[in-house]
Design a protein that fits this description.
With 423 residues, the protein is mainly alpha-helical. The protein has 13 helices and no strands. It comes from Paenibacillus stellifer.
């Protein structure tokens, strides 16, 4: 007998347990397992390519194929998600990923997996993931009530970010113990178990009347978003946030640790893991807070604290303070600070998900979620490029102060925006 109450379509009881209801529990456990498998797989794959080829370029090419797939397929995926039973989408994407990764594992075992096929397979997995993730987010409001949306998104955030933290650690152990082939097979198995769990979801999709052509449906999604002024402003803000945050984590912090503090890659990894750990803590806190009707205050307050915390990153690298910090002190400062910034970022990320799930009609939810993920992912490479070029000629403390200051300014502009007050 299950410990979770059953749910047919949407309404979940407000007096929900830890995993809310049976349907959400199945979705959560499947997502946790597949995310953990992905984290172990990607960590081990990048290390394997670097060790066997000695080429950072080839490592970057393989990792880039997933991002390209997300950017290209993302908008189309949203149309598909709104057309088809979302449960079917989730199961199909897990099944396809299982077959691709499992096949690559077998070919690798027999040493007949060329580099081009590895890139192709990684790209195909990326395509499936770019469909799976927005489908997972879009189906949440169909499985839980509005009263439980914040808790559901908090738990989902914990699953994703805890997998990143634990995956790197497990990946290092499994790679040394079992080797890369076993990791391919284990990841394929995680997809299979995830699909089996999701097949147990009892979900009655809402029937929607949709136009026949993909492009018409895609344009309808854009048009719908523009009619929702508050959602459109949040949409633009989140894209800008991805653009500004990407170089801080992937360009500025590595530069600070290596060139200014003369630290090691291990110390950098501690800082990056601490950011994900902060998001996990944020998810745990948010899951305990009561659901409120208007989310604008929580959203803006989280973003304000996040923006202010970013200013802390410039303290150890200020010209008058740089030489007064020991490496040990500076690393611990950044570890502590990134936990705090991750905490506030986690708050804002969860609340933004709830806003879109609560205020977007079911027939448009897949398209809007995919557009948000696609444009957010597309903004990051531009952030890397501009941040990298800027770091070559502008002092690091100036870059961080400018980035944090600009983010704080646009957050304050949102604070006084009339449409945002209606969220």
């Amino acid at each position: 007998m299950s410990d979770f109450p059953d749910i047919q379509t949407t309404p979940a009881t407000p007096q929900a347990g830890f995993l809310i209801n049976r349907n959400f529990a199945l979705l959560f456990l499947g997502r946790l397992l597949s995310q953990l498998g992905d984290a172990v797989y990607l960590f081990s794959l990048s290390w394997y390519i670097l060790v066997t080829t000695g080429s950072t370029a080839k490592t970057g090419i393989v990792m880039m194929t997933s991002l390209i797939a997300t950017v290209i397929i993302g908008p189309i995926a949203g149309v598909w998600i709104d057309r088809i039973n979302r449960k079917t989408v989730l199961i199909s994407m897990d099944a396809i990923r299982m077959l691709i990764v499992g096949t690559m594992g077998v070919l690798l075992y027999f040493d007949i997996l060329p580099f081009w096929l590895l890139c192709t397979g990684t790209g195909l997995v990326g395509i499936c993931t770019s469909v799976f993730n927005p489908a997972c987010s879009s189906i949440l409001p169909n499985l839980v009530s509005k009263d439980n949306l914040t808790k559901a998104n908090s738990l989902d955030s914990i699953a994703v970010n805890a997998s990143q933290v634990v995956g790197a650690l497990i990946g290092a152990v499994l790679y040394a113990w079992l080797g890369i082939v076993a990791i391919f097979i284990l990841n394929a198995a995680s997809y299979m178990i995830s699909a089996l769990l999701q097949s147990g979801i009892r979900y009655s999709p809402t029937a929607h009347k949709v136009p026949g052509e993909f492009m018409n449906e895609l344009k309808a999604g854009f048009s719908y978003l523009k009619t929702k002024r508050a959602l459109y402003l949040v949409f633009i803000y989140l894209i800008g946030l991805n653009f500004l945050l990407a170089p801080i984590l992937e360009v500025y912090l590595p530069y600070i640790v290596q060139h200014l503090l003369h630290g090691t890659v291990a110390q950098l990894s501690y800082i990056r893991v601490s950011f994900a750990f902060g998001i996990v803590i944020g998810g745990a806190i948010m899951s305990k807070l009561p659901q409120v009707e208007l989310l604008n205050r929580r959203f803006i307050f989280s973003l304000l604290l996040f923006s202010i915390s970013l200013f802390g990153m410039l303290i150890p690298v200020l010209p008058k303070l740089l030489d007064s910090w020991s490496l040990h002190q500076a690393i611990w400062f950044y570890i502590s600070l990134t936990v705090v910034t991750g905490l506030f970022f986690g708050f804002a990320s969860i609340i933004s998900n709830v806003i879109f799930q609560k205020d977007v009609e079911d027939e448009y939810r897949g398209r809007i979620t995919s557009l948000l993920m696609t444009f957010g992912s597309s903004a990051m490479p531009f952030g890397y490029l501009i941040g990298g070029v800027s770091a070559a000629s502008i002092p690091m403390y100036v870059l961080i102060a400018t980035t944090a200051g600009f983010l704080l300014l646009i957050t304050l502009m949102m604070l006084i925006s009339k449409p945002i007050k209606e969220l």
